[in-house]
Amino acid sequence: MLTYAGTHAWAMRLADSLIASGIRPGDHVGLIVANHLEFVPLKFAIATAGAIAVPFLITCTARTSSPTSSPSRAVQC
Fold first, then answer.
1. What is the Cα–Cα distance from 74 to 57, expressed in whole angstroms?
2. What domains appear along the chain, each with residue ranges and CATH number?
3. What is the pTM of this model?
4. Any idea what the Cα angle at residue 44 is, between residues 39 and 50, rounded to 5°?
5. How far apart are CA 2 and CA 8, in angstroms?
6. How far is Cα 60 from Cα 66, in angstroms, rounded to an integer?
7. What's the pLDDT tens digit per position in 19-69?
């Protein structure tokens, strides 16, 4: 069972990992994640790192996601 404290701890560990991997405030981080519990701490982690979450639909193809990905400046991690 996921608790508030558990979600916070998970998000802080993810934020530390994002920062250690080079994510900086203002970076756009692309998310290709289905609607699962993992999305919540990941979104908080990105915000904690000062970055901006750019969610993509998992059903997108390269053709349909290209116009969205270019202006977003999302980084791959």
1. 14
2. 4-75 (3.40.50.980)
3. 0.74
4. 130
5. 10
6. 9
7. 999 999 999 998 888 778 888 999 999 999 999 999 887 765 555 555 444
Token pair 């970076």 in the structure block, residue = 27
Cα diameter, the chain? 40
The residue ranges of DSSP E strands in the chain, in sequence order, are 28-32, 52-56, 74-75
| Straight-line distance from the first to the last Cα atom of the chain, in angstroms, rounded to the nearest whole number | 28
Q: Are strands 28-32 and 74-75 parallel, antiparallel or unpaired?
A: parallel
The model's pLDDT over 68-77, given as tens digits with 9 standing for 90+, comes to 445 555 554 4
| Residue that is written with structure tokens 């996921």 in the block | 2
Tokens representing 60 are: 């997108």
